[in-house]
């Protein structure tokens, strides 16, 4: 089916308006201005910088805890302390180990979890604010547009095709059908966040994977409003243990924000063995622990969301440069899983990419070789030193919590080397144990509707919505596998790991069928990551669809 | 044809509604805003008229600074220029006061046609279009499904209740309120978004229009209707329960 | 308080919604001692209709006839009624919130420099004044609105806000007074052509006073006609929760909820609907909610005024039978 697409030519195309993409755009605009002002040739223009964002507004798809290490923001916007929407400085942090009924406070907060000098932020608000600065700098930010396909020219990336809009559920053009644009650019920057759809295919097709495959965790979060006095703004608590068992990677967080708001959530490594594990349910249980319940009692759920986090670390960083292309931020695995921080690295990587791009544009050379300078810059910067110091962290936990902590202790005193360097690890989706006659599935979690909620109620509070009459954006390559193999081998884990109740196995005359409620999707990418057969391909739906993570 | 479209910016449909302490309106901080959906159909209709008959489409809106967003969206979809009547206290105007301000701003140009949506999704007074017609001395028609231009006259298909429709004719210039759902609203194109940045948005401060108007009505308070959380369960056999229910619906709730 | 009700007819046929407005007027009058209610019958050749209306408990029927009022036009009605209002000086002018009223009433009020509070669902009579209640944010909230400034005050009531069949009949027929109005042909700018029927593309459930909604409990599309019949018997429309439309058993325009329509009818009957929040937000503004579900813990019961824990396949026929008898 050949469609005529309108073509637009840009100098730099940035896919994703999160902290990485926006930092790149802002810094790039600044460097271009400086270049032009100092009489640099050829003269460059900010008008040739385009940023694509699939969300309804900038910040709509941004979700994190989050505790921000401001070092990168201080480089990008020196007066950030006065102008950035920082919720509150951290003034008290603690780590707890939870059992089913008790909370044991660790006498010393482990150094990676110490947050003095950091700020509790809403990454969504931060992105919105950065977006404002980027637009003021004269850069075009196009919200409600997604990068659907990469354009290749030989070995190089030549741009992106945006998604078609106005197709009905059978893919046929509707009255307002608008084909995607052929957006060509000298340099395309992939800043799609964790498990970016363009990044995933590029890395797979060109064999750009790092030493270890990328591994992910899922973070399930709720934002609550609690009675006054219940929480101190600036209070940061991290938990280990219950409700996760010691074979699982992950932990919880509770952050006190201003105006009686509490950010809380549970992170679970997507490499657990039990295919019926339900990360959303685990988070709901987390809230019932007395330690958490006493904070939330009498409060009100404000918003819900879920997103994956790339936790593979140093050895999972793919090749981040190609002819005409750079990969930055979460898409490039630039996240410190030990400190649970990636926003500062995303911002810094955006800035380093901007420097690389300006050099390339000045020299008229956008080859992979020229752009490889980006990786050197990353390695030489504090991103490199920080990630190297925790390079085997996540992998330490593949044999359980206690072994993991032991490894971590050794790594801590050996600058990251530890007992095994590099520690190899399989991809998460290869770690399920088959059901093997495990018995009937346990009943699904209902929630009490006051403290805990079922997934549908939570999904409602994510503000997610999609154009209903459009093709399903979750491509399952062979549903026969679901109905004939997976049902026996793994019990269809998609019904459990999806935090938005998108996937359902429904009874039908003669058997079962996979029903996909795509309009519930919160764009977390868990299904793309955790499906044991890797037959789910998440592609961007029509731009504008997805969650509304205001304040998250 | 010179067409004006009056567009309102309203809280996003899924925005959480928190009523202010005074109880007279909702908290506007920290919520998203969007183009009033009924007005998006009016805009689409205006753009189609321009495509068919040539001319100009002007997008007008009234409200605080954030209102520019919906004007820009209209420009991105193809409107030629915008008019922003700036007023921070817009939400406190009564329908007549609101219409008087818009009429004053529109009077400066000689529009052939003025389109509005049926009503706004927030206050839903549903009067702006008809009031504009009266204030500007123009003929009007409401709940329009189809527009045919015949020289200086229009032939219009109106929707009536219960599946009835009617054609009416009237002369230009005129005001029309457009039925929702009559067209598929177009997407903003990338080129349209870029071009919108260069299009003019004239800003008029509402006070400068010099409208002397005493409000005719006042919203005293807004509240979530308190449903007495009392569910009356009706038991008995299906036949008994059915009979009891109908009885209650007829004589207690009085809805049947 | 002097109350004037503008009633509606088309081709001599009474629009029953007008009875609701008459009742509203009677009730408001009863709350304000010394009040007087008159009703306007406007058109051409409607003298017979006026005599029928006179059977109600009213002080007077004002018959407004003119050749140019034969067919409805906004200009004709607004100009004629402006003269009637100016002549009779009512405090409160009440109208039913019909498509026709939406078309001319704001113009009528504005031509007198007055405002209109439209689409009200109720009122509260306080000592010195009346406060009108209407919905805002598509039924998510209610709003109390009052008039500031001198009368006449214009108010329209939503269909179903009052029970038209409870209008009080008069002990004797009210006097019918003809009022003459001035209308010139060149004042009527709209030329109305013929009316016609058409199969409507999409049904507007927001206009239905009664909705019978089905959920997953209906189990199969073959069972839907049962619910449809019940809806028709009640004088309502069929609606559905999302899963039914997802399966394609009913078109999308029947869907109620956050991804469908938001409605606030006077009666919402939820059959086999669990009450997930996505559905409830689309209908919780309904004035009376009845839920029938097998599961006593279904969240729908939290918003229901009346609930029956039972099998819809037994209750739908039972309800149908009761309604068919009367």
Detailed description of the structure:
The complex is a heterotrimer of chains A (552), B (256) and C (326). By secondary structure, chain A is α+β, with helices and mostly antiparallel strands. Chain A folds into four domains: 7-64 and 128-210 and 317-389, FAD/NAD(P)-binding domain, CATH 3.50.50.60; 88-119 and 215-310, D-Amino Acid Oxidase, Chain A, domain 2 (2-Layer Sandwich), CATH 3.30.9; 394-422, no CATH class; 430-538, Alpha-Beta Plaits (2-Layer Sandwich). Chain A has 16 helices and 24 strands. In chain A, the strands form six sheets. In chain A, strands 1, 2, 8, 9, 10, 13, 19 and 20 form an eight-stranded mixed β-sheet that branches. In chain A, strand 11 and strand 12 (173-178) form a beta hairpin. Chain B has 256 residues and is α/β, with parallel strands linked by helices. Chain B folds into two domains: 2-209, Rossmann fold, CATH 3.40.50; 226-256, no CATH class. Chain B is 28% helix and 29% strand. Chain B contains six helices and 13 strands. In chain B, the strands form two sheets. In chain B, strands 9-8-7-10-6-1-4-5-11 form a nine-stranded mixed β-sheet, with helices on both faces. In chain B, strands 2-3 form a two-stranded antiparallel ribbon. In chain B, helix 2 crosses helix 5 and helix 3 crosses helix 4. Chain B is globular, with a radius of gyration of 22 Å. Chain C folds into two domains: 2-187, Rossmann fold, CATH 3.40.50.620; 205-325, 3-Layer(aba) Sandwich (Rossmann fold). In chain C, helix 5 (224-234) packs parallel to helix 8 (312-325). The chains are: A alpha+beta (552), B alpha/beta (256), C alpha/beta (326). At the B-C interface, helix 3, helix 4, strand 7, strand 9 and strand 12 of B face helix 3, helix 4, strand 7, strand 8 and strand 9 of C. Strand 13 (232-233) of chain B pairs parallel with strand 17 of chain C, so a sheet runs across the interface.
Secondary structure: elements and pairs:
The complex is a heterotrimer of chains A (552), B (256) and C (326).
Chain A: E1 7-15, H1 19-37, E2 49-53, E3 67-68, H2 71-76, H3 80-83, E4 86-89, E5 92-98, E6 103-105, E7 119-121, H4 123-136, E8 140-143, E9 147-153, E10 156-162, E11 165-167, E12 173-178, E13 182-190, H5 197-205, E14 216-225, E15 235-241, E16 250-256, E17 261-269, H6 279-288, H7 290-296, E18 300-310, E19 321-322, E20 325-327, H8 343-363, H9 368-371, H10 373-380, H11 382-389, H12 401-413, H13 455-460, E21 474-476, H14 479-489, H15 494-497, E22 503-508, E23 511-516, H16 526-530, E24 536-538
Parallel strand pairs in A: 1-2, 1-13, 2-8, 5-15, 13-20
Antiparallel strand pairs in A: 3-7, 4-7, 5-6, 9-10, 10-13, 11-12, 14-17, 14-18, 15-16, 16-17, 19-20, 21-24, 22-23
Helix pairs in contact in A: 1-4, 1-8, 8-10
Chain B: E1 2-6, E2 9-11, E3 33-35, H1 37-53, E4 56-63, H2 68-77, E5 81-86, H3 95-107, E6 113-117, H4 128-136, E7 140-150, E8 153-159, E9 164-171, E10 174-178, H5 190-198, E11 201-205, E12 217-223, E13 232-233, H6 238-251
Parallel strand pairs in B: 1-4, 1-6, 4-5, 5-11, 6-10, 7-10
Antiparallel strand pairs in B: 2-3, 7-8, 8-9
Helix pairs in contact in B: 2-5, 3-4
Chain C: E1 2-6, E2 9-10, E3 13-14, H1 17-31, E4 36-43, H2 47-53, E5 60-65, H3 74-88, E6 92-96, H4 99-111, E7 116-125, E8 130-136, E9 141-147, E10 153-157, E11 176-179, E12 191-197, E13 210-214, H5 224-234, E14 237-240, H6 242-246, E15 267-271, H7 277-280, E16 288-293, E17 306-309, H8 312-325
Parallel strand pairs in C: 1-4, 1-6, 4-5, 5-11, 6-10, 7-10, 13-14, 13-15, 15-16, 16-17
Antiparallel strand pairs in C: 2-3, 7-8, 8-9
Helix pairs in contact in C: 3-4, 5-8
